[in-house]
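Support reply, case 0932

Customer input (verbatim):
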Amino acid sequence: MAIAPEYLRLADLTAYASVSKNTLKKWVGCGMPVYRVGRCVMFKRSEFDQWMQQFRHGTESQDLDSIWNQVLEEVH
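Our regenerated output:
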């Protein structure tokens, strides 16, 4: 069993996030957390995941039954 590293290099994060290097570079310009040690650029996986959460859209807190009940109440 392979252990996933806590810190990812740019190439590793492109695979993890399924986006291009250019997209990640743009996101860094928009405030995505990054670590720079000399010429090495690293990303902490948990911080990346947390940063991405701010862009999530959806109804995570409601289950399908509660959404359905709300729709039925509005129709009646």
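We compared this against your earlier run and they match. Two observations from our side: The mean pLDDT is 85. The radius of gyration is 18 Å. Please reopen the case if you see a mismatch on your end.
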